[in-house]
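Notebook entry, structure prediction.
Reason for the run: the old model in the group folder had no record of what sequence produced it. Starting over properly, with the input documented here first.
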Amino acid sequence: MNTIMIVEDEDAISRVLAAYIRKAGFDCSIYRNGREAIEAFDAATPTLVILDVMLPGMNGWEILNHIRYKSACPVIMLTARGDVSDRILGLNEGADDYMTKPFEPEEVVARIHAVLRRPPRSLVSSEQVTFGSIRIDFKSHTVYLNGASLSITPRDLSLLMFLAEHPNQIFYREQLIDKVWGMDYEGSDRAVDLAIKRLRKLLLHWPPEEGEIRTLRGTGYMLYANTQ
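New structure, fully documented this time:
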């Protein structure tokens, strides 16, 4: 049976979530601090983790980093803060989705189903990837072109990092919004086109024989990379 791990120190929230998740047919376990959650995760990797940001002793970002170091297990972050910068940070750190309190338990269940329908997350085998003269450091969130670091906004960087994790794969605009910016994103899919335009300008001196961001008319985008 699919097991959902809830890491939440507020008893009322965790109990309600667990009740709805079990009603949806999942097994469910609750942990109220980071240390317990990490020990349980290491002992038996769950199907998905629902992870609160504000926890006693160890915050959600630290737990997320531990999970991503060893596993592609899907993670949905919960927080009382709704800042765009927080959502971008969560997605850049490897979260699969992000929900702001208060929320409806039914929506959490819907997001669980949505995340589990996605293709498995691609874990890079190292902390960085290199395609010719471009190097993307996933840990420091830095992009280098010909040895010089590039200045990229967090939102555009999250898009580039996702494409770099999945080179030579095609993604629709709607898929990129869902996978990169999350279901909480409010705006037009035109934002993807504008982000791609800005990234291409930054990568203008990346030799096309090494790679490029390609538009597939009527389909979407992909990061073409010469991996030979």
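Summary: The chain has a mean pLDDT of 85.
The old model has been moved to the deprecated folder.
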